[in-house]
Amino acid sequence: MVARITVQFFTGLEKYAKSNSRTESVEIADNVRVEWLMDYYGFPKGVVGVIVVNNVLSDVHTVLGDGDVVTFYPIFGGG
Q1: Structural domains present in the chain
Q2: Span of the secretion signal (predicted)?
Q3: Measured between alpha carbons, how far is 73 from 79 in angstroms, rounded to an integer?
Q4: pTM here?
């Protein structure tokens, strides 16, 4: 089964989007994990600091389904 999800990229991560945009839709196999999506976009290790799925703090093991909204935020630093 195929699922359509929305992916959002913030603070520089949009350069990994296939459309070079902050928001895009993508079709995925139903029940794949965020980890697969991160590989799909080619995020280097340590670039993504926060993952939110449907407005809930999530991680790479979160299973995705049709209609989900996934948001990637970079590592935040400061001091």
Answers
A1: 2-74 (3.10.20.30)
A2: none
A3: 18
A4: 0.92
